Amino acid sequence: MPQSPDLSFKSPLPVLAPPSIAIVGASERAKWPSLIFRNLCAFKYPGKIYPVNPRVSEVWGEKCYPDLASLPEPPAHALLIVPAPAVQAVLETGVTAGLKSATVYSSQIGEGNDPEIVARGAALKALVDRSGLLLCGPNCMGITALREKNFGYPNAELCGLKPGSVAFVTQSGGTVQYIAAMAAHRGVKFNYLVSSGNEICLDLADYVNFFAEDEHTAVISLFIEGIRRPQAFMAAAAKALAAGKPIIAIKTGKSQEARDSAQSHTGAIAGDYGGFTAMCERYGIVACPTLDDMVEMQLAFQAGRFPKGSRVGWVTTSGGTVDLLYDYLEEMGGEERGGLSTPEFSEATKANLRPLVSPELDLKNPLDAGNPINDAADAAMCIAVAADAHVDMLAWGGTPPSGRRVRDPAAARSIADSTDKPIIGFIRMHHLTGKEAVTFQEQVGFPFLQGLPSVIRALTGLAFYGARRGRHIAALPAPNGATATLEDEAFADALARHRLTPPRSRVASSTAGAAALASQIGFPVALKIVSSTISHKTEVGGVRLNLKSPEEVERAATSLVTTIEAAGTSIDGFLVQEMVEGVEMILGARTDPLYGPMLVVGAGGILVELVRDIAVRLLPVTPDDARAMIGELKVARLLAGFRGRPEADMDALVAAICGLSEFYLDHRTHLSDLEINPLIVLSNGQGVRAVDVRVVRAEGSP
Questions:
Q1: Tell me: the pLDDT tens digits for 487-546?
Q2: Whole-angstrom distance, CA of residue 52 vs CA of residue 54
Q3: Side-chain-side CA neighbours of residue 624 (13 Å)
Q4: Does pTM top 0.70 for this prediction?
Q5: What string of H, E and C letters represents the secondary structure of 671-685?
């Protein structure tokens, strides 16, 4: 029987804000211990610092203790910068002496497949479990807690940052200094920078849960290689969503190579990336594609304004920028695929803009306003666009001051003061900025983002989060479906009740019987093999289509027997189905081992794996969810009636998606997978037909 998931949380507060710190491995020749000691002293860590090394009696001009048991008080927190084989004994001694928490920097503890390394990890985990020791790592680079002046990360530059409200947790230790340095240079203000490492004790779920409750944290950003306790992580994410605290996350593992690498060097199981994106959609986590985008999103979300929709008013000074925006917006999805929209300005807005824009320029969105007259005119245009009832966010193509470029902060500040909508200044390319740009951002009350694609993704992220902010995630309903429902006619009837109507069909045991049944159903028909050993009939040549007479059916059945026997297997009979025409879709439901029951909708038929035009959601799926999923697909244009084709029955498709969601949830203890491919969507008003249904029973289900 599967174990219940661990939904408990451990507070990292003793690691983030310890009253004293022991540096184990203290040595004037060791780089990291020396740098950490200097940082703690120079940046005024308020607690006591105890160097520990059995080989010396004095280090850095301070008394050095042989072990944690020799300290003048029970050790609150220990930084272990020692070889991996020494870690266990150091911590055993520390726990006996009253050690409350530790950061273990050493690698080769638990990751990979080497038996000795795996055994070290198991021993450390056992110590943590029996003692209650709180531990960051192993295989990490420590923590910087700026407000608490705890500088365990070996980097002096980060210690001088001004505390803010953005927390960053990463399973990649080196990523901390790159993200933090670049983001801080651009104006992001962090409070916590956490390198969580292999997470033998404290994990992502614990940190997210803590930051969701922490009054000093407004934005949570994550670099994820794998989620060790996905159910606990989702519970913490739900808490953050309800509290209005956005989570921005980069997740590695799109490729199999990245998934294998993550498991090798951190022991993290990356899981299926599609499952991760479905989880992000449900819990309002903004999936971030690159480290560069992470900086832009941190800036955008740090501002603390969230839109009521996805409609952007663009104000630029360049026709070229406008042209690029059109291209990028279309390439990156557009409104019809869940992206941003660029509404036409209202007549009132156009009237306010006309005196400010040269008469030869059209008052379109995105707006090419030409060369600005002055900062006051820029502000007036932005205020007019932001006031438009059809606009949810303002994006202004202005630039902050740099070098000889001077800006009036009061004029730009008037834009922010005129509205509560999100405002983003943007620069079309990435470039270096100085301190005057950060100061200007703080004066005017909104950030300046760089690079048009990153700007669009940041605004899309704001819209995505704004639509979900404050959402409370309900628990899944208990499964009540019986195994008898999955048998033969009862199964077909149940699918039909869930709006998954099968085509007229019968099963024959002989070639002649197939021909007779085809005459009863009516021509044309499709003929398919029935076999308990073959899941994908098309791949083995087990389907014949558009058969128009009894003779064609009998010849096709005989050919199928020959084909299948030549492949070394046999068939149990023939399925004779009415032929239906429409748009081929795939619907599938399964239980992801990390994130739970989920549903896939996409372009179906034999090209499904090649085209990979799919949308994924965690269950349950509502009608609004279903329409949003369809809207993300390229095949949505075909469903809408492409190049003279009739419009497909969208309402019936939505009902079918929701029906599969309901049916699978109710029977999820008995099913591993339930796939319909193709689901034929007929013309408007004609419904759908579940042509080919593949069922995989759950392990242990009768």
A1: 988 999 999 999 999 998 899 999 999 999 999 999 999 999 998 888 777 778 889 999
A2: 7
A3: 3
A4: yes
A5: EEEEEEEEEEECECC
